[in-house]
Amino acid sequence: MVAQTFDRLLDQGSKLGLLPAQQQNSRNWFRAQASRLAVNPNALMREDRSAFVTVPMIGQMYLFAYDPKTKDKLPYYDSYPLVIPFDTVRTGGRAGKEDGFMGLNMHYLPLRLRARLMDALYTVISDENYDERTHLQISYKMLKSVSRYRFYEPCVKKYLFSHVRTRYYRIDPKSWDIALFMPLHRFVGSSTEGVYKDSYRKTQ
Fold first, then answer.
1. Is 124's pLDDT higher than 80?
2. Domain range for residue 55?
3. Can you give the three-state secondary structure of 11-41, one letter per residue?
4. Residue 102 near residue 158, CB atoms below 8 Å
5. Count of domains observed in the chain
6. What is the pLDDT of residue 84?
7. I want to staple 48 with a disulfide (CB 3.0 to 4.6 A). Which of 3, 95, 181, 201 is the partner?
């Protein structure tokens, strides 16, 4: 099975001579097209079951369903995060067992800031093949120390493996800009506008 939504937009872009992620005008075109889609995250993931993986890798992008452990204490949360993991989380310190990961959930930023953060992250991409090995070479230390990543803070979230409710749907690097602007978020506890307003305050 193929990811029909992604492939359809990639084919349209290819006919216009647009290479995914590699040029700013290409990124802008794919993002604009994706923002106009009406898409359900579960339906999107069912389009290509071969994209599911059991273990997320640092620096790649994933969509999954999530039910937070502390949801009763959170003002709001995203039940379908779009996340770029940047570190593992261990119980009992660094020598303990891995029980989750830290990542950037790009859904927490309004589209304009989301695009600016992603453009900055492209500067640390591992290669320009945009295949299964391509990843972002990011760490928490790097995000905190370089000014061009300054919009990262509202996106930093911790995810526990035991509270992930689907397998991880790996987004092919060629489709990162499409997934980035798709309306896949499902915020619980706040409107989208409320989340964006709160995130914007945190970036100032």
1. yes
2. 4-202
3. HHHHHCCCCCCCCHHHHHHHHHHHHCCCCCH
4. yes
5. 1
6. 98
7. 3
CA distance 19 to 26: 6
For 37-67, letters b (16+ CB in 10 Å) and e give eeeebeebbebbeebeeeebebbbbbbbbbe
Question: Helix %, strand %, coil % for the chain, to 5?
Answer: 45, 20, 35
Place of tokens 């591992």: 126
61: β partners: 171
What confidence tens digit (pLDDT) does each residue in 46-94 have? 999 999 999 999 999 999 999 999 999 999 999 999 999 999 987 665 5
| pLDDT reading at 176 higher than 50 | yes
82 three-class SS:
strand
pTM above 0.85, yes or no: yes
Kindly state the tokens that stand for 7: 């492939």
Helix (H) or strand (E) holding 99: strand 97-105
| For the chain, percent of residues with pLDDT exceeding 70 | 95
Q: 138 with 146: CB under 8 angstroms? A: no
